[in-house]
Amino acid sequence: MKNDELDENSITIRVVIADDEYKVCQLICQLIDWEALNMKLVGTASNGIEALKIVEEEKPDLALTDIRMPGYDGMELLRRARKINPDMEFIVISGYSHFEYAQAAIQCGVCDYILKPINRDLLNTTLQKVRQRCLEKRSLRIQVKQKAADVARLRKTFWNDMVLERSPKKIEEINQKYHYHFENGIFQSFMILADVQGDSGIDQIYESHVFELMPLKTLVYLQNYVQPFCLELETFCQNGKIYGIINYLPEKKEKIREEFKNFIHSLRLDLSAFEYLRFHLSTSNPFDTIEDLLKAYHQCERAMGQRLLTEEDSFFEKVPADAEYDEDTILKNFGQKIQQGLDLQRKDQIKDAVLELESMAMERGLNGCQIFALAQKAYHLFLLTSIVFSDLHFKDREKLENEFNSKAFLCGSEKQLFLFLTESCQKDLEDACQWIDQEKIKPISQAKQYIREHYSEALNLDHVSSQVGFSPSYFSTMFRKETGKTFLEYLTDVRIEEAKKLLRESRITIELICNMVGSNDSKRFSKTFKRETGISPKEYRNLYS
């Protein structure tokens, strides 16, 4: 069974009963075969006001109600309840057989009218019919909801297809394939983005729930301000950024511009609690044909890039021209300096390389979008250059680059962007160097573990160094550097600690204990034990056993 299909046996119909006579309510409860009908009583009421409160709180599927009650009568209860739940079913149970009561009930959409005294069989038969209607309504709601979800997903695919240049070009074909309602008129793209101001931590903000909240708030304000003047409007979320397309009549051009300003102002006010963030809106030029939406998408991205060069929250409408510069020469110079920094494992040289890159970008008058692209390419080059140095172990380079690109858009200025580039490169180098240190230490840890497991054997420096793949001289140097002790001193410490344990916990002879910890000369071991602990093995046993 599919998730969206109804298992009728598992559906419980929720019921409320309303009658101003307590005994009638109790009688109805007793007459209903609750288990056979798979129904559940969620409340009883003696007047219409109480009944409506139960409807609001319990959300029943069905109400059995008298016509004449204090507060709201049955018909008023029905009208008010249907405003809460238009699909709610009603069975009117009344002692009034007059035509006007039945007529009023029918006019209000009541299909079932039972006269008192109540017949058990008639009541349960009627409830079975109502139950079936409830299930049919639920099934229809699910189908409508599923269809709406399918249409929404299909509409969202248009953006990706357009960017990848695989969508149809004609309005009629787009409307048919993606369920849009585009018309001839103006077509425009827009982009909404939040970035970080000041020294707030990008990593912390990247994990913030604001990026879950922003699309919801954006949609609400777009619907309030912009959508009423559009023929079509759709938004698309991608990596924390929100893109959109609008289609409107030419005479609405100025109104759309005005409402975009109102929209971004309201969004900023609503999300002002996130005081470390700035919210920006950019729009493309207006185009007369839908074929230009891809161009419009690139324009709103280029316009948004200018946020890196301004300190204020902004609405960017102007698409900047690209500066002409020799990108290859700038990146080649950066790559050479990065290579020197990696070769010498110098973080200060990494910083100098980025500072020079930033200086070149600003001197040549690059626009914001060009600056952002240059920073991305510089980091990509840094990761490529690191491959040359096989002794530097970088983590998954593709993952590092994706993470950099995802977080870089949070930078609120060109200075912050290049600082983030510097810190990212330096951290990657630092992590790689730490890995080298750990790799150097790993054989020493293995050697220590081997000594602890084989201390009872005749161990020497040559034997243990061969176990971890080092020459005796290099192993001796590294072992002392990492442990602060020579190989023999460490081995002696291990043997003495094991001897202490045996002296405390057993009555084995001292001579045998010496053999058990790897010493064949008990007198010599006893002297060593006393030198290290200040007392002889025998005295140690007398004190601690």
List the helices and strands and how they pair.
Layout: E1 13-18, H1 22-31, H2 34-37, E2 39-45, H3 48-58, E3 62-65, H4 74-84, E4 89-94, H5 99-107, E5 112-115, H6 120-163, H7 171-178, E6 186-196, H8 202-206, H9 210-226, E7 232-238, E8 241-248, H10 253-270, E9 277-283, H11 293-304, E10 315-316, H12 327-344, H13 347-363, H14 368-386, H15 397-408, H16 414-454, H17 461-467, H18 472-483, H19 487-505, H20 510-516, H21 522-533, H22 537-544
Parallel strand pairs: 1-2, 1-3, 3-4, 4-5, 9-10
Antiparallel strand pairs: 6-8, 6-9, 7-8
TL;DR of this structure?
This protein has 22 helices and 10 strands. With about 550 residues, the chain is an alpha/beta fold. It has a 5-stranded parallel beta sheet, with helices on both faces. It has a 5-stranded mixed beta sheet with strand order 7-8-6-9-10, sandwiched between helices.
Please tell me about this protein's structure.
This protein is α/β, with parallel strands linked by helices and 545 residues long. Helices cover 59% and strands 11% of the residues. The protein has 22 helices and 10 strands. The strands form 2 sheets. A 5-stranded parallel sheet has the order 2-1-3-4-5, sandwiched between helices. Strands 7-8-6-9-10 form a 5-stranded mixed sheet, sandwiched between helices. The two termini are 71 Å apart.
